[in-house]
Amino acid sequence: MMKQSLFITGADGFLGHHLVLQLAKTYNVIGLVRSPKNLKRLKVGEITLCSTNEPLDEVFEQYQPIGIVHTATKYGRTGESVPSLLDVNVDLPIHLLELSQKYNAKIFINIGSFITQGKGYNYLQDYALSKKQCSQWLKLIANKADTCKVIDFTLYHPYGPRDAESKFVSSMVKAIKGKTPFIDLTPGEQKRDFIYVGDVVTAIELALKKYADLKAPYTQTDLGTGSSCSLRYFVETLKAVSGNEETDLRFGNLPYRENEIMEAKANPDLLNIWGWKPIYTLDEGLLLTLEQTVV
């Protein structure tokens, strides 16, 4: 029996490549990336890769995907222009959903972010606005046609191996594994719903199986563990799991960011109804991340 085709945007990204490793067991995965020649995580030939710059209408016609998982995103942290941000965070998913409807795909999964809650960090305002606008457009387009189910996940704080080194968790893992003498931190009272990337993958895998149960053409729901812990507890747990007794965690040496989100916890109600529960404890997820991190 031939495998059904599934498109994954951002296939070489943090979440994207973890999805590829798991979903390629079940689907014929077509990875949509900016440049198939500039890969950081995937190996050439591991899956079929197509550039988002080529005519996507032809890609859809050739592979006839049953679904699309949109993980590609641009944060705007490195001075990217607003048009380039909108191109990835708004224009691309809108175009993909319209093509999904045209070519009779059954499910479109969008990966949003909890950052859109609250007032938003000043340095991520463009990003947060673009993600909000993306959701608004996806809802509008899905409700108009009602031919392809849309699940719009608000993803909380994923972590795991091979994430970008600029991310908070990656920088902490590298510093603690490398036994940095000290780390300056905020008081660490802000709470986050940290979810190991393996649990994110199983949630998305389940959604690909259960989407037909949804009655509405558009569904927005959370993707997280449903519990939160303070940043202080998270970093202290990371240090304990690593066996590092040398690094001095200097909580309170840095101020909170302006408009800091002090509590972020998912309500994964739809996933819970479907029987999904996170498998990895914080200790287990951090240990796996440490083991696969090169200092």
From TrEMBL:
Residues 7-215 form the NAD-dependent epimerase/dehydratase domain. It comes from the Bacteria. InterPro entries: Epimerase_deHydtase, NAD(P)-bd_dom_sf. SUPFAM superfamilies: NAD(P)-binding Rossmann-fold domains. Pfam families: Epimerase. Belongs to the NAD(P)-dependent epimerase/dehydratase family. This is NAD(P)-dependent oxidoreductase.
